[in-house]
Design brief:
mainly alpha, 3 domains, 8 helices
Length: 280
């Protein structure tokens, strides 16, 4: 029985043990049909539940103590001098408490600033998950941004998105492992916030620009056809493969070769995707 016949047969069993078997067979088919390459989907340690990740990192957003994390002791120390030193910051420092009050809301009893009115409604508040385990030593913005996005205040480690791509791969081989959407100016410390660090270069994030073409050089010159590009890449790949065979320690070259191929595929896929984003 071929794959198509198996699917039709098991689908007819409905919500029974056959459905469980169908799920397993389809998963095997998907794994067998998965493309090769560093960004190909990988089997996770635990069953996957999320299909995509959208991380909103709002530099300059409201403080945690002004939203969901009241600090009564900090309010008591308000405007008193702090002797604590950290990072590259110098000069005198003072404790500053929140100017707002806080109260517990919803059945879960989470702490919430008293300035939030609609968010405090039970139907909304009980849908929130407030995580307070993210702590850091950074006292200035560049260090804090790098620490948040890469886990290192020096910014030499891979970013969160790079680790996700490294660990799980991507279902779409025509797009980068992850993209970064910035607003107005770049965040402090710039592209280091979405760097691949010590991972291969194809795990680095790709920034979508807010003005003009979202990604530069997506359109090839008018005199160069897709066939011309394909032949040039194939020839370049032969030369690079020969060089890599003699110099296996040059792992950056393999990443660059994969980047060329990804850029070629993106020229077809990205324009339509960006257009669909504009209409959302």
């Amino acid at each position: 029985m071929d794959n198509s016949s198996r699917r039709d047969f098991l689908y007819g069993l409905g919500a029974s043990l056959g459905s469980v078997a169908l799920t397993d067979l389809l998963a095997q088919d998907l794994q067998a049909e998965s493309p090769d390459g560093p960004l190909a989907p990988k089997q996770p340690m635990h069953p996957a539940r999320a299909k995509a990740v959208i991380m909103l990192f709002m530099e300059g957003g409201p403080s945690h103590i002004d939203t969901f994390d009241p600090k009564p002791q900090l309010s008591k120390l308000n405007v008193t001098e702090s002797k604590r030193t950290s990072g590259l910051a110098t000069g005198k420092r003072f404790y500053v408490g929140s100017p707002f009050g806080s109260r517990k809301v919803g059945d879960s009893g989470i702490d919430m600033c008293d300035q939030f009115i609609h968010l405090a409604n039970k139907e909304v508040a009980d849908e929130l998950c407030v995580y307070r385990g993210c702590q850091a030593e950074s006292l200035n913005h560049p260090e804090a941004l790098l620490h948040m996005n890469t886990g290192s205040r020096l910014g030499q480690d891979p970013s969160v998105g790079s680790w996700v791509g490294y660990g799980l791969g991507s279902e779409n081989q025509n797009l980068p492992g992850f993209v970064v959407m910035t607003e107005l100016a770049l965040p402090q410390a710039g592209s280091t916030n979405w760097s691949n660090g010590f991972l291969p270069a194809y795990y680095q994030g790709t920034r979508l620009r807010s003005k003009g073409a979202p990604i530069l050089d997506l359109q090839p010159p008018s005199f160069r056809t897709r066939e011309h590009q394909r032949k040039a890449l194939d020839e370049l790949a032969k030369l690079n493969d020969a060089h890599l065979e003699r110099h296996k320690q040059h792992d950056v070259l393999a990443s660059r070769m994969e980047s060329y191929e990804l850029a070629y595929r993106m020229q077809t896929a990205v324009p339509d995707i960006v257009l669909s984003l504009i209409h959302i």
